Amino acid sequence: MSELDSTDPSGPSLGDERRARALAATPVSVSWLPGEHFGVAWTGGVAVLDRGAGAEAVGRLWHQLEGDLELDAFVDVLLQATGRRTVELPGFAAALHVPGADRGVLLAARGSFVASARGAVDRSVTGGGVATWSERTAEDVEWIAVRSAAPAAPTEPADEEDELLPLLSGVVRARRLQRPRTPQAAGSSATAPAWRMTADRPAAAAPVVHDGATIHSPSTSARPLGLVPAPGAPSTPGPRPWRGPGTPVLGELCSNSHPNRPGSDSCRYCAAPVAGPPRPVARPSLGRLTTSSGQDVDIEAAVVVGRAPRARAGREEEAVLVTIPEPHVSATHLEIRPDGWDVTAADLDSTNGTFLCRRGEQPVRLTSVPARLASGDVLDLGHGAQVRVGELP
Fold this sequence. Notes:
The chain contains three helices and 25 strands. By secondary structure, it is mainly beta.
């Protein structure tokens, strides 16, 4: 990997004093400029990824990004989220807070993207002309930016500072994210780096959807996470075919504000047209499971099946326990869980195993590696004990 250094990083000015004060007065850590790519913000940094990464993959990436990361860890998460090899990774620019360094930042870029930092010595890296990515460490950083290297359209305003929007944490359609040097907000730590994010996804409460494109903490809105109303749609749609505030995922809304898998032509609930760019939405129930013992279970969280099932350590609160009282079924036999808009199943080292039966195919014995399920699949636990999978997105 190569290292590129510049004492004049390409990036916007800080804008007028009035706008800087306005941004500083709100619990905002990042400003972003709308565009065609994906902007991602979390406590430990910011990144812009090529639009070819796909909305679902970027959504998975954001959910796995937590706190400060080394570049290797960031790339590992990106590989897992996209399902690609290193040489197939989408273009990106990232600015990562260096673990253990108050004002240290690692800049990385791949493809037609640029990462910049201003501080004791200004730094900038670009991903052009390298097979993997370029990277560089910057110290005493006061301002960071990640952006597409493509020039802005000539019809756009020359002063892009007036177009910047606020973001605390989440995924947006953007061509640039930045964290300018602004005064510390009231009550914040005086020793915290000015550019670094001041809040993360709340641990005890679900995030809320603010404007259909960004995710903010509950302190910025009183509305609980739920449907993102489509433009012109009523704020309270009709009865929802799911319950509770589902996990936030990237989705597309129909005209009745039902969330759907990105790329859907029509709504799976009401058949209305689906339109608009992907945005964070509350994931609905992805379908229903029916057991041979007569139980129906909505797929809204992990479902653990067994003779006396117990959730995995650390997942007790989110798991739904389904009991099949048969002696040949292991105490904790099988786990079915939503993954983005997909549903997967994994055998939990059961004694007699679990077989995935799909119409027109030979049964396959499941392992501990999650296997993607399809509508109509049957999970056979032996001796007539089964779990049937209903219609999936």
